[in-house]
Prior knowledge:
Layout: H1 5-18, E1 24-25, H2 37-40, H3 50-67, E2 71-74, H4 77-88, E3 97-100, H5 109-118, E4 122-124, H6 131-140, E5 145-150, H7 164-171, E6 174-178, H8 194-220
Parallel strand pairs: 1-2, 2-3, 3-4, 4-5, 5-6
Helix pairs in contact: 3-4, 5-6, 6-7
Amino acid sequence: xxxxxxxxxxxxxxxxxxxxxxxxxxxxxxxxxxxxxxxxxxxxxxxxxxxxxxxxxxxxxxxxxxxxxxxxxxxxxxxxxxxxxxxxxxxxxxxxxxxxxxxxxxxxxxxxxxxxxxxxxxxxxxxxxxxxxxxxxxxxxxxxxxxxxxxxxxxxxxxxxxxxxxxxxxxxxxxxxxxxxxxxxxxxxxxxxxxxxxxxxxxxxxxxxxxxxxxxxxxxx
Length: 221
């Protein structure tokens, strides 16, 4: 929604050359809309308000797929269900990743199972789940789990580096995500914030190095 075709194609080229998945967040989203609830509750930040926004999200998905994107981040449960059905019907590629956003609350195993049944192929879980709850989610799902290890301030702000070995043990396959504490929320980003965006990206990579050290120490132990 906020990127030109050329920018998306450049991202896909960079991702292909580096073996990195490119995942685009569908828009429009409630947090950018005229509604007031999203301004006071992040839990509705990713919703599609009304059928027009649902349709716009679907158009965003088809545009992304036509450009070659094969991974979409979805913030609305109704949009997720429709996209899942479109995959079943053959109107979207069978290998299209549908990743639920952290803005879609996922605090327990039944909810995880529901999202997977609706078509999710990757699950962002709520940011503050204890390890036993992650194990419960893994016991009823087969798709990868996404989880913030350092959580952005607007999603809780906690840092869970030393939980990583246990999280990997009970939740694998799991993507460990580096948000940043004390960092500005720069959505929607653009050239006016390019320096900040680059600095945040570099710091996330540095944080990932710390996680890899912890995992290596666990292996040695």
